[in-house]
Amino acid sequence: MCAEAVLRRCHRRIIADYLLASEHLVFHILGPGKIGPAALTPRARPSTGRITYPASE
What we know:
Blueprint: H1 12-21, E1 27-31, E2 34-37, E3 45-47, E4 50-52
């Protein structure tokens, strides 16, 4: 569990990307009674057993 309210500043995004790339369902607990589905980070590039995040162009 992570208490960081801003998802883009949190390690859970990396973990969520890895799980999503491995075809797991992932949900974020956003607050009391608020759960939202995770989506792969737009810059994430999954490949066999790993995820890379290329620098912005």
